[in-house]
Specification:
The complex is a heterodimer of chains A (about 80) and B (about 180). Chain A has about 80 residues and is mostly helical. Chain A is built from four helices and no strands. Chain B has about 180 residues and is mostly helical. Classes of the chains: A mainly alpha (about 80), B mainly alpha (about 180).
């Protein structure tokens, strides 16, 4: 069954284009994406949507504080 | 660069992925950010127990996951009706137009059991191997594979798209993810 699907993908030449699309950007929602990987693409888009947001300031601040605290502990 | 500078840089690099993982677990960005904050503080505190050169990303995801489950146990009573709350119908027929709505995916993800959802996200979106995901969730590799399988099937059913359920496709996915992660850095 897997073999059959693989053949189908190769025959339509879609395997490579899917990889290329996924490597560049995941924004496409158009009909280019074969049904086979619709779910996988969407999952990564969902994940990357958040992962591409800038890191909130609170974490920068937190790490600076932790860093300062451990440095002052070392020197004292 | 001192060891602790390196460690701090590693933490900073991991934050975007940790936030995404946190949101997939909690479906709320405020709770996800609280989880990330706890994770960073715990990681810092237990810095010494981390072996340099080993997989820091997997280590951090493990801490976040542990924190999530420990908070979940505390909250369990309050959220017991959450399943009913989220079970709104997904109406889109993605197969008909090759389009899958993000809101529908989010709704469908919330209907998965936690163990299946986390396995799917770790392997299908975070770019971890089955082995790493098994280590993070403290279960056997076969268990992770079966959870990912069931999650995919359930999502496909909820979203009314063709179920792929094909490990060959997942192996390709991981290759793609490796490339994508490297490109992000």
């Amino acid at each position: 069954m897997a073999q059959k699907r693989q053949n189908k993908a190769n025959a339509s030449g879609e395997t490579n284009s899917v990889k290329q699309m996924a490597m560049t950007d995941l924004k496409q929602d158009g009909p280019m994406i074969p049904m086979q990987d619709l779910l996988g693409d969407k999952l990564r888009e969902y994940y990357n949507e958040v992962a591409r947001e800038p890191v909130p300031d609170r974490f920068d601040q937190l790490l600076k504080e932790l860093d300062a605290r451990s440095k002052s502990q070392k020197s004292s | 660069m001192t060891r602790s500078d390196q460690f701090r840089d590693d933490l900073i690099m991991a934050i975007p992925g940790l936030r995404a993982f946190g949101i997939s677990l909690t479906s709320r960005s405020d709770r996800a950010d609280d989880l990330v904050q706890e994770t960073l503080m715990k990681a810092w505190k237990h810095h010494e127990s981390f072996e340099a050169g080993t997989n820091i990303k997997a280590w951090l995801y493990t801490i976040l996951r542990n924190e999530f489950y420990s908070q979940l146990r505390k909250r369990r009573r309050e959220v017991e009706d959450a399943d009913g709350h989220y079970s709104s119908r997904v109406a889109v027929h993605a197969e008909q137009h090759g389009y899958l709505d993000m809101a529908d995916l989010k709704t469908a993800l919330q209907q998965l059991p936690e163990d299946q959802r986390e396995a799917l996200i770790l392997v299908g979106a975070s770019g971890f191997s089955y082995e790493e995901a098994a280590e993070i969730c403290k279960v056997a590799i076969g268990t992770i594979k079966s959870r990912v399988n069931r999650a995919r099937n359930k999502l496909s059913e909820l979203l009314q798209i063709e179920s792929t359920n094909d490990f060959k496709a997942d192996i390709n996915l991981q290759g793609v993810m490796g490339g994508a992660a490297a490109a992000d850095e």
